Amino acid sequence: MLALLAEGAPNKVIARRLNISVHTAKFHVAAILIKLGAANRTDAIAIAMRQGLVLV
User: Fold this and answer.
1) Which one, 7, 9, 12, 26, has the greatest CB density within 10 A?
2) What is the pTM of this model?
């Protein structure tokens, strides 16, 4: 999920690539934002990169 966010994939693309519903993708993205303490998707990727959770 983080890798797809780092690619800039919208929820619809994430859902399709992971074979989940768009609602589930939105739920997981929201959970990632909360867990990382991020204000938005861009902030989440910046935090994840600093923590070594995702490589781009």
Assistant:
1) 9
2) 0.89
